[in-house]
Each structure stands twice: as C-alpha cells, then as structure tokens.
C-alpha cells in the first residue's frame, strides 16, 4: 500500500473517521441503554455529520473570522496527525520516530486548546465561560494523564510508541503491573474528551454548549469529528500501552472496544463534578497517584 | 475626602440577568441579581412570559366551564387546581361530596404528588449533570401517568373532579394496577433515597448547598416541601384537612438540614407517605355514589379554599354573586409564594448558592403565569396571518 | 372552643388596637375591615406576636357603580385564616407597602399594583411582574370594565 493510501484511506484518514463515528455510536447507544433510553440508530453520527456539513455556518459578530473558521480545521488536522504514530486497528503505525509519544500527547492537547480558544474568541459569555473551564480542566488533567502514559514508557525505557508497545506485548499486561497508572490514564482520557462526569466545560444546564456555543454547520461538524477521532486515538494509545501491546488486530479491536465500554459505563454512573471539584480531584489524587506509581517503577527498575 | 476611587473598599456592582431564555431554566422567567463581588445585594424577578389571562377569563365562564379552565393552570399538578376550585365551590353551595368521591380525589392527589416529585427529582438531577438519575426518575414517572390514562383516559389533565364529586370510578382491575404501581414506587423511592443520601458524587453537589434555616423559612412564609426540608412543618393535609384527609392522618415529613439534599430527601420520603395513604384508602374505599347534586347557580358568598399541592400551599379565593358565573377567583400558587420568599432570602448570600435555592423550590412557571388578558382595551382588532408575521419580524429586529 | 377558633381569637386580640370591624364569613375565618392607613400596623401587630404568615393578597373590584376596590390581605396560621380588608377608591388607591416587614410581599404587591392600579408606597420594586413592558399605562386588566377578550365590551 502506498504512502498516500496509508494517509488517506487506511489506517489513517477515511477509515479512522468512519471508525470514529462508529465509536461515537457505540458510546451513545450503550449510554442510552444504560439510562433506559432507546438510543440512536447505527448511522446517526454519520447522518449528524453530513447534516452539519451541509448546513449554513453562522459566523457571529465580533469574532476574528479567519481564526473562527481555522480552529476546527486545525483541531481535526492535529488529531489526524496524532493518529499517524499510534497503532490504529493494531496495524503498524504510519510513522514512528524517537519521542513520538510526547508529540502525540501534545497533538491531542492541541484539540483542547483549539476548543478553548474557540470559546474565548467569541463575544458569547457562555462560550467564554466554557473556554475558561476547558483551559482550567486542561491544566488539571494534563499532568496526571502524561505521567500515566510515561509509566509504560519508563518501563520500556523508550519514548517511542512502537518500542513501548513491543515491550508491552512481550511482558505482563501493564494493567496488572501498573494498575494505578491505568486508572489515571483512563480517567485522564475522559477528562480530555470532556466526558461526564468531567463535562463541566460543556455543562448544558449552566453554559449551553460551552466553548462551542457559537459554532454551527461545518465548524461544529469538524469539532465533533476531531473529538471522536481523539477518542479513538486515545483508546488505542491506552489499550496498546496498558493492555498487552498490539498482538493481532482482532484481539486489539476487542480490547479497545472493552475500554470504550468501560468509559461509557463510568459516564452513566456519576453526577457532573463542578469545575473546582474536577481540578481538586486531579491535583489532590490524580497527580499524587501517578507520581507514586512512577516512583515505584523507578525503584523497581533500580532494583532490577 | 479623597477623589480617588477606592476599588478595594467598594467592589464593583454588577447586574446579572438570568432568563427568560436560559439553559438552566426550562421555563420562561426572568431573574435579575445585583451582586457586589460574589455577594448578592439585590434580587428581583419578572414573570408573565407564558400568560394566559386565566383570572380574567374565569369571570366570563360558567362554574362548570371554569373547572376545565382551572385544571389547565398547571401542566403538572392539574388535579390539585381543580380540587381546590371544587372544594371552594362546594363549600359555597353547601354540598358535601359522597365519601367515595372524596377518597378518589385524595387518591389521585397523592398519585399526582408522587409524579410531581419524581419530575422534580429528574429536573434537579439534570441540573446537577446526573443524566442517568434524570432518565430513571422520568421513566418511573411514566408508571403514574399510565395509571392516570387507565383511570381517566388522560395522562395530564385527567378531569377526575367535577363539581360535587368525581367523574370516574375505580374498577377492581384499576385498583390492582394502582396497588402494583404503588409497590413499584416504594421500591424505586427506596433506591432513590439511598442514592440521594449516600452517593458521594451527587452528595458533593447537593450537601450543604442553598441552606435555609427554620427561622428564615418561617419568617419568609415558605411553603411545601421547601419549608419542610428546613424543619417547618407546614402541611395543609394535617393543619387543615380536606376531602378524605379528615379520616386519614398524614405524617409530615420533616428534615432539619435545610439544604438541597434535605429537599431531595423530604420529597422522596413524601413518596413513601403517599404510597401509605393510597394503600389505606384502597383498603377502606367507601362504597356509594360518586357525585352529589350541584345547583346550577352558586349562592352568593365568598370563600377560601386551601389545599396542599405537591409544591406547597395552593390558595383559592372564590366570590360568587349568585349568578351562573363567578364574580372573582383569585389563585395564589405555591411557586409564587416560594419564589418571592427565596428571592428575599438571596440578599446577602453568595451568588453560587442561588441556583440551588431556586431549583430547590421546584418552581412552576406555568402556575405563576396565569393572570393576564391578551387583548388591550382600544386595540381589539383581529390580526391577519400577514400582520402577525410582520409583527413577529419587527419584534425580532 | 377548638384550636382554630382559639387562634382566631388570639389574632383578634392582637388586632384590637385597630378597632377594625370583625365579621365571620365562614368557619375558620375572620375578616377585619380596617382603614387604609392601618394596614402596616395590622401586619406588624400580627407578625410581632408570631401569628401566622402572609399567604396572599387579593384584589376585589366592586364595579364602577359602587366605586370601591377592596384589597384583602390574607394571613394564615394552620387552618385559621385572618383577612385584613381595606376599602379603597377604585382610581388612585394607595397603600403602605408591607415589604419592609415581609420582603416576600413584594411579588403579591406588584401583582395587585399592575392588575388593579393600587400604588404601594415605600415598595422597593414597583416594576410590573406579569404584564408585558408594552402594556399601556393606566389600563388595569382585572378591573371590571377591562374587556376579557377581543370582541367583548
């Protein structure tokens, strides 16, 4: 398969987008069933996206027009680029280089930054409020999430995702050797994607749709797509690092799916945390737990 | 005296408008809070965005027609409005409904109380971002709406009441389904009570939030579950029993914490009490007629009917001049009373406390907005669709 | 004498300084007709002694022929209802606001004010409560001459 195909069709590009929409459907459907609702049909996320893309995009007064239109594109580009270095669907990633773990995490954060900025550039106070909350949340979950991903990296003595997955594949699942890191990573992923109970940045009973309040049509569609892609990339990353690396694609798909089910179930269980409670949770427990785990790994390494 | 502005000593005053369209308020009300820093120094409200002019409309309709109109004051507690009206009119006419009718009235009122409390539980959970609880409680509420449909054919405006009694009897089959529903409600209420008391995440959002002391609740004249959550035992079912409550003693559910959690707990505990009342009623359901004969013209006089609606005391003042239409009907809904009180209570509190205080009263804007005529004197032309459209466009501009 | 009657008797004793005219419209109720200037004092006498709470304020138009507008201020304590009745002129009636004493009275007063045209002096908030902003000045919908709907008059 040539390079263009890898980028545009499989595993990146089109296949990734479709799987991202599928992941949204699975998550929504399961959440609905857990809440005793019927839930959407299988093509609903795709239909939503097509509908939004076809709709008029309203650009509110008082925003920087170029920035307003550029932010969704940038965020989608960032997450699609992030996908290049992770073993999507269990196949060999399109690119691999020393330190790509850090780059991937950074690119995923770019989505959050774009979302925040999208709220802050408008005159809408709900959006501004949402933008601020997104930023506060970014500062609170980013550190523990990164620390949780670095645990496997330290164990594998590499910053390169393929090396870490290879190490993970030939050893005991890191879910068992680093359980705390796994929990922090999963919750960090939920914080990153603003999933309930960490959905204060888009609490619709308080601030409508948070930072994306003013977005409609194409911009909204792209932001939604970016978030879904980020979900798949994040799940892939956590599954590859913590659930025994990348063996055969089918087993890997099952692992990723299981992780998605876990995340969705957690969403159904809790009431939303206030933004101060979210931050408190992360800095009081998340960071300490991840750091403690890290020290244990380092001590273990030193002893070996 | 210095001319330098001292910004530290006098924090800036801001006015924060909330509504009439706001994501947290699903109903149209407009609140305006003046804050100094984070402290509220002024609070006021503006209503009327859903006005239907009912208090004016009742004087040009007959006593029987008004029964149907007043039932539509509220979309949640429709039965209790018609009940208050019937009690008042029956008092004026000197008619006592038969015992079976009185029992059925109370039965429906208690079912309605449960469905109203479940509705509030869902809305409050939704505001706290607990979507699963929202979905669960509204699913369980469906059980009661289905019962209403089975008994009367309607889910919301059931028209059970009529002047002098009730319209629908309970068949043996319906009694079985009511009992089954009551059993389910008790089971669910147990689950919700445990959840509200012990769920740590929900607890973080509701414990110690929006606290109102007993003294404050008493002084402000707060009514209903909001008062009972603050330890003020105002409940007309006990203080001034009406219909079948005269025969069935009601236990008033009291909580002393006065915070949002206490308001959750009071409402859920009241569901148990409602279940108990319904069981007692069905065990001792009197036999006999459903209606007493009512005169077409109601004798001259004025009366006050007060009943305990799900949200608190509902007050009806009815004046008859001996004709076939009322001279004046005044209604004061529990929400108006509680909103006025809560707003007065807001002064001097932190802004973050306010939404929870408001939500805790279970505000019903439909109940409030009832008393305005649509057409202005001297401007009584009929609009064509085109004129109406143009008016809409201009209003938007 | 039952508890309700006892409560009402207590209330009447508290209100004795006003020399109001007491009537019994029905069981469990007493109406005390007082002068317009005595409303605030009446409310103070009741609340200072801890008797009941302000339940509602009713406006009652007696029509153009009588030229009287009554304002009924209802206080309740349990099943006992005590009503202070004040007779006002239909046009330009004025009462002292109860807000200083009972802040929650504001909403009731605003409703009476916009529906019947009674002015409550000393009220902190005299804006409309229910009527729209563009409602014409001086048109009070619950007065008898106001039409209930288009086509009536």
Give your account of this protein's structure.
The complex is a heterotrimer of chains A (304), B (397) and C (153). With 304 residues, chain A is mainly alpha-helical. Chain A has one domain. Chain A is 72% helix and 0% strand. Chain A has 13 helices and no strands. The mean pLDDT of chain A is 82. With 397 residues, chain B is an alpha+beta fold. Chain B has a single domain (54-368), classed as Cytochrome-c3 Hydrogenase, chain B, CATH 1.10.645.10. Chain B is built from 15 helices and eight strands. Chain B has helices at 54-57, 63-71, 78-93, 99-127, 131-152, 172-198, 200-206, 214-220, 224-229, 236-239, 260-283, 334-346, 354-360, 365-368, 385-396; strands at residues 13-18, 30-36, 39-46, 161-162, 165-166, 301-309, 312-320, 326-332. Chain B has a three-stranded antiparallel sheet with strand order 1-2-3. A three-stranded antiparallel sheet of chain B has the order 6-7-8. In chain B, α2 (63-71) runs antiparallel to α3, α3 (78-93) runs antiparallel to α4 and α5 (131-152) packs antiparallel against α6. The model of chain B is unreliable at 1-8 and 370-385 (pLDDT under 50). With 153 residues, chain C is of the alpha/beta class. Chain C has a domain at 3-91: Beta Polymerase, domain 2. Chain C is built from three helices and seven strands. In chain C, the strands form two sheets. In chain C, strands 1-2-5-4-3 form a five-stranded mixed sheet. Chain C has a two-stranded parallel sheet with strand order 6-7. In chain C, a hairpin with a 6-residue loop joins β3 and β4 (68-77). Chain C is globular. The chains are: A mainly alpha (304), B alpha+beta (397), C alpha/beta (153). Chains in contact: A-B, B-C. Chains B and C meet through β3, α1, β6, β7 and β8 of B and β3, β4 and α3 of C.
């Amino acid at each position: 398969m040539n390079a263009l195909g890898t980028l545009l069709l499989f595993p990146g590009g089109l296949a990734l987008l479709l799987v991202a929409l599928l992941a949204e459907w699975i998550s929504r459907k399961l959440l609905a069933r857990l809440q005793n609702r019927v839930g959407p049909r299988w093509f609903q996320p795709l239909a939503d996206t097509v509908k939004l893309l076809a709709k008029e995009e309203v650009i509110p007064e008082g925003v920087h027009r170029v920035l307003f239109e550029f932010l969704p594109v940038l965020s989608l580009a960032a997450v699609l680029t992030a996908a290049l270095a992770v073993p999507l669907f269990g196949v060999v990633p399109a690119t691999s280089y020393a330190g790509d773990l850090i780059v991937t995490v950074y690119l995923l954060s770019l989505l959050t930054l774009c979302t925040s900025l999208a709220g802050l550039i408008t005159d809408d106070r709900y959006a501004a409020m949402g933008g601020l909350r997104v930023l506060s949340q970014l500062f609170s979950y980013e550190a523990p999430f990164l620390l949780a991903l670095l645990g496997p990296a330290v164990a594998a003595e590499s910053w390169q995702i393929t090396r870490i997955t290879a190490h993970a594949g030939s050893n005991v699942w890191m879910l068992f050797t680093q359980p705390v890191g796994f929990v922090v990573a999963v919750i960090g992923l939920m914080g990153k994607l603003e999933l309930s109970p960490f959905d204060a940045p888009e609490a619709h009973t308080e601030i409508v749709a948070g930072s994306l309040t003013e977005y409609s049509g194409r911009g909204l569609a792209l932001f939604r797509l970016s978030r879904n892609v980020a979900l798949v990339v994040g799940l892939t990353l956590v599954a590859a690092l913590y659930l025994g690396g990348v063996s055969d694609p089918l087993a890997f798909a099952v692992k990723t799916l299981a992780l998605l089910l876990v995340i969705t179930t957690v969403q159904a269980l809790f009431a939303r945390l206030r933004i101060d409670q979210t931050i408190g949770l992360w800095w009081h427990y998340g960071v300490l737990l991840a750091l403690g785990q890290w020290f244990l790994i380092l001590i273990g390494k030193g002893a070996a | 005296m210095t001319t330098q502005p001292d910004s530290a000593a006098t924090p800036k005053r801001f006015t924060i408008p909330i509504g009439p369209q706001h994501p947290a308020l699903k109903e149209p009300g407009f609140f305006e809070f003046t804050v100094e820093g984070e402290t509220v120094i002024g609070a006021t409200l503006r209503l009327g965005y859903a006005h239907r002019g009912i208090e004016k409309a009742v004087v040009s309709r007959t006593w029987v027609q008004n029964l149907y109109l007043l039932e539509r004051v509220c979309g949640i507690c429709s039965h209790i409005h018609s009940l208050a009206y019937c009690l008042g009119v029956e008092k004026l006419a000197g008619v006592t409904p038969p015992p079976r009718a009185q029992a059925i009235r109370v039965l429906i009122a208690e079912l309605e109380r449960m469905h109203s409390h479940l509705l509030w539980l869902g809305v409050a959970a939704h505001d706290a971002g607990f979507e699963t609880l929202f979905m669960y409680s509204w699913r369980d509420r469906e059980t009661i709406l289905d019962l209403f449909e089975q008994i009367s054919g309607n889910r919301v405006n059931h028209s059970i009441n009529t002047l002098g009694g009730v319209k629908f009897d309970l068949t043996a089959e319906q009694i079985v389904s009511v009992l089954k529903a009551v059993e389910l409600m008790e089971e669910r209420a147990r689950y919700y009570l445990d959840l509200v008391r012990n769920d740590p995440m929900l607890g973080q959002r509701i414990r110690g939030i929006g606290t109102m002391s007993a003294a404050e609740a008493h002084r402000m004249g707060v009514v209903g579950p909001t008062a009972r959550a603050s330890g003020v035992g105002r409940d007309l079912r006990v203080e001034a029993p009406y219909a079948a409550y005269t025969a069935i003693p009601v236990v008033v559910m009291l909580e002393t914490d006065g915070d949002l959690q206490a308001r959750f707990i009071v409402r859920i505990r009241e569901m148990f009490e409602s279940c108990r009342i319904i069981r007692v009623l069905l065990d001792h359901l009197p036999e006999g007629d459903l209606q007493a004969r009512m005169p077409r013209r109601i004798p001259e006089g004025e009366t006050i009917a007060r009943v305990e609606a799900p949200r608190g005391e509902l007050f009806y003042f009815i004046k008859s001049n001996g004709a076939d239409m009322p001279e004046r009907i005044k209604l004061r809904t529990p929400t108006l009373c509680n909103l006025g009180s809560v707003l007065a209570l807001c002064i001097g509190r932190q802004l973050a406390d306010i939404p929870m205080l408001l939500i805790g009263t279970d505000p019903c804007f439909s109940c409030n907005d009832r008393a305005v005529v649509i057409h202005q004197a001297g401007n009584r032309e009929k609009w064509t669709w085109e004129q109406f459209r143009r008016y809409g466009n201009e209003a938007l501009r | 004498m039952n508890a309700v009657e006892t409560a009402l008797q207590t209330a009447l004793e508290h209100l004795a300084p006003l020399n109001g005219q007491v009537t019994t419209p029905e069981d469990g109720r007493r109406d005390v007709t007082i002068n317009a200037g005595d409303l605030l004092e009446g409310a103070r006498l009741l609340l200072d002694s801890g008797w009941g709470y302000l339940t509602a304020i009713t406006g009652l138009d007696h029509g153009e022929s009588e030229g009287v507008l009554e304002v009924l201020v209802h206080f309740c304590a349990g099943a006992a209802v005590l009503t202070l009745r004040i007779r006002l002129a239909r046009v330009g009636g004025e009462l002292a606001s109860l807000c200083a004493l009972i802040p929650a009275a504001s909403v009731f007063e605003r409703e009476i004010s916009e529906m019947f045209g009674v002015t409550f002096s000393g009220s902190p908030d005299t804006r409309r409560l229910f009527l729209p902003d563009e409602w014409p000045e001086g048109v009070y919908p619950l007065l008898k001459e106001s039409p209930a709907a288009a086509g009536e008059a």
